Amino acid sequence: MTIHKSSKYFIAVTSVLLAFLTALSPFGIDTYLSAMPVMAKSFGVSIHLIEITLTLYFLGFATGNVFGGPMSDSFGRKKIALTGVLLYGLSSASIPFAPNVEMVWLLRATQAFGGGFASVTAMVFVRDWFEGKQVAKLATLIGMIMMLAPLFAPVIGSFLLDWGGWHSIFFFLAVYAAVLFLIFLAVMPESRHHTHLTHRITKEQLIGKYRIFFSHRRPVLMLMTISFATAGMFTFITSSSFIYIEYYGFTHRVFPLLFGSNVVLYIALSLLNNWRLKNKEPEQMMKLGLIIQLIGGVLMLVGVSLHHPPFALVFGAIVLFVGSLGLIFGNGTAVILNLMPEISGSANATIGVSRFILSFIAGTIPALFQSGDLVPIGVVMFSLSLLANLFYLLFKRS
């Protein structure tokens, strides 16, 4: 069975499928966050060595984006998506059998590469079929559906941890990938017109497409804006287990409730965004999101600077910071893709590469400077939000 664009269910079905494709990333991250202390004990290592599996995931995901985007321009979106999902699933199934933490690092990198290789095509499918504000609306809709993953993933992870140990979490990810592969294979049509497919790509073509992107000032400034804003969120995600379980002493059963609270504001702002896009431009809604995130960053910095950071203040700051992305990421992505429609695959790949490399760096800094408190985390989150706002101002003036 194949759905067609003329079907009244086309937008609904493709949005859900592309959201599940994009959700490979949050599921690969959020399901095992509460299990990190248990994994550390299982391998007999510090929790900070387990946190490296997250930062390596960001790096692997970015690398997958580098190759997946341009190759989808040449070979088609569907083939690239299916190949990435397959690699993601095989790597997930192998992690429970890893004999040591170093092997987990390697398999997490290949799992992430597959996820990045596949999910980079999601927004490009949308850009192939639609343009203008419709891209922003669908990007926000997909993002909203995708953000249900961080809401449910920690709950699923906590349940699986109690039921079958940390190993069962990665078996679940393998099954998720297998089901997605089969449905995507049967249902999703190819969006790239066959006349644009070359079925080959040279090193010069690969580099050339990125050179075109970086030769334009406005897309690059918008890229920096959404990358720094998103990296701030991943700084929190990398350290969330430490913040809630290690520092504040909550159990892994309570962790999903705390972590999922961020998603409630994200979804609310996503709904507001789609409603306001009837009269507003994506850039205007994005500005509001950046202001909200900066407020969250300031509150976080103030909170961690206190001798005993109040949980309510830190928690509220994190909810504002992460939830604000409901107004930032979808709109920023739409702006970039609408500015660079001729190389949309490479443009979307550049978005993924930039934000995950910055997330890799931002997630590593608190681990390197871990002092047993929340100061490094708060400083990094505030700094990244400030930089995102500064790059947005440069974008508006360019």
From TrEMBL:
InterPro entries: Efflux_drug-R_Bcr/CmlA, MFS, MFS_dom, MFS_trans_sf, Sugar_transporter_CS. Pfam families: MFS_1. It is found in: Cell membrane. Residues 11-398 form the Major facilitator superfamily (MFS) profile domain. GO terms for biological process: xenobiotic detoxification by transmembrane export across the plasma membrane. Keywords: Cell membrane, Membrane, Transmembrane, Transmembrane helix, Transport. It is a multi-pass membrane protein. Gene3D superfamilies: Multidrug resistance protein D (1.20.1720.10). One of its GO terms (cellular component) is plasma membrane. The chain crosses the membrane at residues 9-29, 49-68, 80-99, 105-126, 138-160, 166-187, 220-245, 257-276, 288-306, 312-337, 349-369, 375-395. GO terms for molecular function: xenobiotic transmembrane transporter activity. Belongs to the major facilitator superfamily. Bcr/CmlA family. NCBIfam families: efflux_Bcr_CflA. This is Bcr/CflA family multidrug efflux MFS transporter.
